[in-house]
Design goal:
about 600 residues, alpha+beta, 8-stranded mixed β-sheet, binds aspartyl-adenosine-5'-monophosphate, binds adenosine monophosphate
Length: about 600
Amino acid sequence: MRTYYCGELRESHIGSQVIICGWVHYRRDLGGLIFLEIRDRTGLVQTVFSPQLSADLFATAEKIRKEFVVKVQGTVRARPAGTENETSPTGKIEISVDALDILNTAEPPPFYPDDNQTVGEEVRLKYRYLDLRRPEMFQRLKFRTEVVRHLRQYLDEHGFLDIETPILTKATPEGARDYLVPSRTYPGSFFALPQSPQLFKQLLMMSGIDRYYQVARCFRDEDLRADRQPEFTQLDIETSFLDQNAIMELMEGMVCKLFSDLMHVKLPTPLPRMSYKEAVSRFGIDRPDLRNPLELVEVSDLLKNVEFKVFSGPAQDKNGRVAVIRVPNGCERLSRKEIDEYTHYVSQYGAKGLAYVKVNDRQQGREGLQSPILKFLPDDVIEAILERSQAQTGDLLFFGADKEKIVNDSLAALRNKLGIDLGLLSSEWKPLWVVDFPMFQLDPQTETHWQPVHHPFTAPCVKTTIELERDPGDCLALAYDMVLNGTEIGGGSVRIHRSDIQQSVFRILGISDEEAKLKFGFLLDALKFGCPPHAGIAFGIDRMVMLMTGSSSIRDVIAFPKTQTAHCPLTSAPSTVDPLQLRELAISVKNQESSKGNPL
Ligand code: AMO
Ligand code: AMP
């Protein structure tokens, strides 16, 4: 149909007869002349209709409206002097039109590709095909294609096989709820959509495949955030006979090459490594954003014996913590109102307050400080806190005191927010590996049951079940997360390849032998028939592309994402189904009222 894409035409084409196809992006009628800007995925080009050439053609052009789909034939010519557009790659030329076909008309759309700023995300997602006409959306999807192509190429060159695993499967525990699919042939039974291909990739190692990858769709029914979707894509990887260091090196080679090829960014090699313990102690979180210079400083030991119960209580509690964040020049950068706003902000994370100390003059000791809590603290403690936090004149100290989790969550969030609000983030890329995770953590609800920190197939550092069961809380895992600018982009582990260890982990997690057999019998069987040591990882492709394209939401790099409340405004999914369909599936919906409509 066409001879060129719109955005390809240049001065070198002057004099050529060309045919282009696309959407009418802009229409300008100057009475004597009509200008149509035609858009396709490569860009825009200006076309000109003059009544002298053909009255019919001019009459057709007059009928045209924005977003009509057209085919235009004409001759490329230089724009008259003074009318060039230096900002457009095609701005020096235009097409003098000889023939025009209207391939399709368009009603006025709810928004035009260039006025997206004024429409809300719900509307953008409802008319996603219009939203995707925007050049930046096209560029992101194109970049995503390139990312996936590069990753595949690296893995192909390193002997990996691309193997598909089932979508209709059994629960694959990754810590979220499952999306279930009812079976018609087995009434009352359900498939689960995979939270990840975890068990299948392990089975592939037991099959001797040795190196596997898959660009795999994963499904998790969990609370959504800017970097989480219920349906997302992993680059899923598994290898046999590689130890933790070997797989980490192979994977950082892949990520560094990707950044070098596509972003012209040289990431540090080897990537820095930090233990989970250090990350949580210094940043309150296991995915620290190292672009941010602020740190948490431990002061629990200094506050055990002070009168102020808000501090001494958590300082004496073995599950408590008191920590400080020092904000350089915080005295003048943060107003009283802003401090109150930060206090309110951390309350979402369970913090009961946010004590602060203004260091007006470091030389003057107590006299140089300003804070509602000073009266509760003795001189030596104050001095020790100032010393340890390296406070300087003009700095402001924020304090978190509570259960460890609350202090970590609230100060980590505060650190991130201060970093952004005060413009403290450096402009470098800051990747790291976080390693030496604990195997288990206590369920925050019951505080008595163990949960896996990764998934239950992750190998412990110890070699025997006796060591493992002696003190599960102390046991470290052979697990590693890749973190980039505060986002976890990948996570993996060495796997358990011995059935006694696997059974012991299930026992610690409170999964009885019968339940383990029922849920994971196939894995336990497979472990008995010659399972090689194996290790793997999965990268979140959407998250990587989000970071690489500088997008603020994962939804901007997915063609048809779900909203924050996990529905699709375009198709209105999820939606109710025909009662007949439910009957065939032997399903009756208990509460018709709540299931009546779709979520819109
Ligand atoms: P994990 O659960 O850490 O590990 O997931 C791996 C990576 O997938 C991405 N990710 C997500 N991206 C978007 N939306 C989500 N809801 C979401 N959840 C996870 C993250 C994360 O680092 N089977 C293991 C991997 C393994 O052990 O090999 C797993 O799925 O970038
Ligand atoms: P109060 O004695 O509750 O008035 O608190 C005195 C100061 O301590 C206020 O600035 C509170 O914001 C702060 N504060 C109270 N509870 C905590 C806490 N758990 N962690 C940090 N600061 C707190």
